[in-house]
Amino acid sequence: MSTRLTQGGRRIDRSKPVTFSFNGTRLKGYQGDTLASALLANDQMMMGRSFKYHRPRGVVASGAEEPNALMNMGEGGKFEPNQRATTTEIFDGLSAGSQNHWPSLEFDIGVVNNAFARFLPAGFYYKTFLFPRFAWKHIYEPFIRQSAGLGKAPDKETLDADTYEHFYFFADIAVIGGGLAGLQAAKTAALSGAKVLLMEQDPHWGGRSMVDGGELDGKPAAEYIAALVAELEGMENVTLRTRMMGAGVYDHGYLLGYERLRDHAPALVGPRHRLWKIRAGQIITATGAIERPLSFAGNDIPGVMLAGAVRDYIADYGVSAGDRVVVVTNNDDAYKTALAVKAAGLDVPVILDARAEGGGAIAAEARAMGIRVENGKGIAKVTGGKRVKSVKICAQAGEGAVLEEIACDAVAMSGGWSPVVHLWSHCGGKLLWDEEHAMFRPDETRPPLGADGAGFVIPAGAANGVMDMGVGLADADHAARKAVEALGLTPVDVSLPGFEQAAEAPLQPVWMMPQGAGPKLRMKAWLDYQNDVKVSDVQLAAREGYESVEHTKRYTTLGMATDQGKLSNINGLAVLSETLGQAIPATGTTTFRPPYTPISMGSIAGEARAEVFQPLRRTPMHDWHEANGAHWEPVGQWRRAYAYLRGGESVHEAVNREILATRESLGLLDASTLGKLIVKGPDAGKFLDMLYTNMMSTLKPGKCRYGLMCSENGFLSDDGVVVRLDEETFLCHTTTGGAERIHGHMEEWLQTEWWDWKVYVTNATEQWAQIGVVGPNSRKVLEKLGGVDVSKEALGFMEYTSGKLGGFDARIFRISFAGELSYEIAVPASQGAALWDTLFEAGAEFNATAYGTEAMHVMRAEKGFIMIGDETDGTIIPQDLGLSWAISKKKEDFLGKRAQEREFMVNPERWQLVGLETVDGSVIPDGAYAVAEGENANGQRNVQGRVTSTYYSPTLGKGIAMGLLHNGPERMGETVDFPGTDGKTYTAKVVSPVFYDPEGEKQNV
Amino acid sequence: MSEARSALAGARFAGIAHVEEAGLVGMISFRGDLGHAKVKSAVKAVAGAAIPKPRGVALAGATGVAWMSPDELLILVPHAEADAVVAKLSTALKGQHFMAENVSDARAVFTVTGPHAREVIGKLAPVDMSRFAEGEIRRTRLAQVAAALWISAPDSITVVCFRSGAQYMFDLLSAAAQEGSAVGVY
Questions:
Q1: Is the pTM value of this prediction over 0.80?
Q2: What is the dihedral of CA A951, A953, A959, A964, to 10 degrees?
Q3: Which of A441, A458, A794, B13 suits a disulfide with A479, CB 3.0-4.6 Å?
Q4: Range of the domain at A955
């Protein structure tokens, strides 16, 4: 059984007990424990069930590479699935649950899949669920979705209770990995004068050398590391962060750092995670190495662990994986585990060394301690269900004939070490196969390249394939010097500590154990624990023709789980290579993609949640709208009032009331969002003549003119009223959504084509609060405010004046979008809310009524005025809308002119704008098509037109619409059919689009 | 007429830094030939400081001038004087091609103050705040909106954004200044 030892545990504080719960049971650990070490200390070997076969699984590793021990963590707003127990630090009150089982971890129904495993091989889904076709959607997929999967998805209604943030940081050199190599590289870089950022995913510095380091300069490695950290902490130009993982390396030295601030201490206030967005001149990847499992039958039974992890649990947490630990290896490193187990007072019944010649000096040491060592031997099979019971020994060279069965409760395995090349590879760093150590390591001649064509990532230490610690220190120093030189600085000489490297016997690659294992053994030899991929699956894929490693990955799901194949990748492609009869480099690896391990969605979103999820633009009168029942409508990022609801009114009722009040007496509209571009200069008139279809240069100061803007392809792009403020200055109103776009459009033409024209443009949209004062009593209310003569004589239709209107600094435009006597008053935004209030006070006797965007839309439709985005959709030219009057025939050129002369644009078959009036007064549904006789080639009804705007007009008491119709203007009085999606057909008479006051008498009083 | 109102008059938040709406500031967007002697003297006369180098800001008490682009400046004056300053510039530069627009009310201004002010900005803007010095201006973004910023006093940063985004900016800065969120690098 796994248990807490009476002594040891460098990371834990035995004076600080911690209580947590696992699957509802209260357990005890110590501060400094990970969830994995605390569970092992409580003899909780089994920590979850596998994805496909629901096999019992225990922890395999001690770090970020862990594939099995994934947990549902926390509850409610703190719930998060798929958290690795090996990187979760425990705290008082932590609540974790195992995943992928029903009804319980101990007794699980889904394990029945395990019994049928031979019928569920690789590609099973693809082969089995093809037919009948309907069954996928209705039977197979729902069943698979229910039975597969790991953690629970968080409840969609429960918001994450934590906050997250981003942080932008700039460094000359970023070092990823705070092991001995990373620390040493940071020191050399910092002493050479570079600004250094050093990050370590673990809470502790030192990496593996804290457990395996031996002695540096005759002192324990831990002492050297402590001194190194202290020295770096004292340097101004060094930033040190623990619990921060290098998540991804991107182009141009961009690097993501994922900092976990409160996962270990959720009681602290502040954000939970911080995502660092780093720009680094050079990046050093000192990311260490990961041990590989061995592929023997039963290598997934709880209690089978990586050899390095077994000694980590002893050294770091004082936790033993078992009382009797069998060690199985193909290299010298795993002997350290045997020695550590022995030193902890526990038993190592045997070391199985697959190498015929056995190990080096350390093997002799093990023998000297009385440990039985068997060379050329391996494991035929591990017995046990929910925990290891025994191992059956065989010759590695054979087919698995059992020589002996040895009882044990844990197996420590080592298949060698693979450098963590992920971050080196993210942005294109290439790998080469190191035959001697049987591993892929960075090819330093082919690094990721920056904008200057030079490399910007440098690997160091074990991540560079340098497994000897002394050589690794020198390699780290070398990496830092290289980075320093790349920055144009001069590296300083740093003295390195002395280190005695014991001579090691060479590793022997072992991709299958025993090498001649038959089908029965191969079917129980796991490669990818998390996705349940076995040696037999990869071999099957190869036999079925999957030669590319990327295809095999997708067919078998090897390496596609949340651990992205950290343990399985190399073993899997080695098995594939062997089956294909080719060398490993010929097979290659799958692509390493960021993030290195999964990062929280919250950290990606950063601060963008709740009220700051996206910017909301508010007008100066926003608060009034909110206090007065505004039913909001998003218009770009603006929020505009669609209608103002009073009492129990529906939106439709409110819109009708607002329209009638405006037409009868006085309506007020917040038009502040309207784009306002100031165009000034001696060439401003000439410039606007090019931008608008009509003539603007002839406009007199103080006059307004409605204008159309087209793209160079002739399509209608924006419209609005242009005002000539003085000889050199124009104010161009744009649509609400068009302000920034048209400003950019103007600047682009000025900067790229007409750079020698003397014109400046400023976007003054937000400088002004603008209020539409609309209705027969609009003049009266302005006269009450006083200060500016707004009489018909002083300020005619389409004229502009300015002055102190009731004390406000006002620009007054007599323009009308509703067809009534109306004014638009612009005042500086700081005065907007006050003017709005004043107008309501003064307009009380006229029943001044605020109206929203829908009333505005209906009233303009009653007048037959087009709306950009309703009547236009990017394919409409002004000529389609009966707007030929607004296209100058005199001008030599304007944007869109030539395009509008093209054959298709002058084709009389183009649909044309008309008004539509239903014969029964109903409202045609939005977007309805007018059908014609017959069917098209696809068997659909032919169409002859479509509705562009359709409303109920309270003014006229019936439905009105505008639409585009084939030969429309020539068909006045005809009726056209519009089938709705509601099964009804709406019959409408073709009429003029101007429904209300066609003579324009009302606006011209 | 009632008092002119800034977008979020009186809004303030205290966390690892103080966030405060700074009220109305007179701002004139000036465009023209920045190398022209008449432009230089006209700007200096109203701003109280000479046109700074690219990406620079020159402050002189309640007035100042910031470089915005090769042909654009932002002139800072007391809010009530902005229209008069536009008129003054127009007189001084009569006959010359330039543009001076009062954009005071198109903006909202905030100050972020305290020893962690740089970190608060560093959470939202892709700017190297460790090297950001007094006398510099950045036109950048804070999260999803455009903003300009400069150091207004030691440990105090002025942030300018569009008025319509004032609430968003205040909420952003407050979130970035929340308790317990000091990064500890500046």
A1: yes
A2: -50
A3: A458
A4: 908-1005
